[in-house]
Amino acid sequence: MAAQKINEALEHIAKAEKYLKTGFLKWKPDYDSAATEYGKAAVAFKNAKQFDQAREACLREAEAHENNKALFHAAKAYEQAGMMLKEMQRLPEAVQLIEKASMMYLENGTPDTAAIALERAGKLIENVSPEKAVQLYQQAASVFENEERLRQALEMLGKASRLLVRGRRLDEAALSLQKEKSIYKEIENYPTCYKKTIAQVLVHLHRNDYVAAERCVRESYSIPGFNGSEDCAALEQLLEGYDQQDQDQVSEVCNLPLFKYMDNDYAKLGLTLVVPGGGIKKKSPNAAQDKARGPAAVGSHAEEDEDEYSGGLC
User: Fold this and answer.
1) Which keywords does UniProt give here (predicted)?
2) 143: closest CA among 156, 126, 159?
């Protein structure tokens, strides 16, 4: 079966080369027909699992389309060549070709297809090079935003933000989350703005920047419905606990369902948040009771201690 497919592919390549030849009666190569034959050869090689030969056929197809000024079809062929490299686990090279394809889609006036290609490249490289994936997702977001496809832009920005948090690139994560929140506010998705504020505060506190975290909450009061929401109340408690170095209060807030059921990367920030200086110890039960009963109770404890030793040590 494989041998048959390889022979079929070689026949298509021979036909393509024939279309590219010129002679006395044929002054111009037939790029369109050659590209079609190279495309058929690539499919046959792929079916025979000869991915390197399939990649080469795709590149020749792309070149023929470029010579024919058919940029969209050339970009498709480059993208297919990239997918052949993916099959060979040559991911950085695959991403390079898909990026090239996305640039051609933009040049051709099909930005949506360009953004989808960039997202595909980001998914390919995410586990190998998160830094590159962040860049690709941000580029895709920018293309979608320019086309006013804000929901798709937000999806890409969300992926970038989570990767930045996972990679502990917290300064960049804070900026990315702010960008997300601004767009959610623009499209009037206010409940998601509240969630992004929680994520921002956690990022700022992990950056040891209490002032930025507090400012973030203060600025969110302008978002309709935030003031008085459970998100707002929880954040105020969190900031109070952090400011007073009360680890118990901070941990209690971060274990609320509101925090625990966020995206995994943000939930982890909550569960690993430690106040400066390691926090204060839990108050003893007696101290808590005394606080509730007032100064008189403290005095009675002192009197009991005095009575115990009033007769001396003997």
Assistant:
1) ER-Golgi transport, Golgi apparatus, Membrane, Protein transport, Transport
2) 156
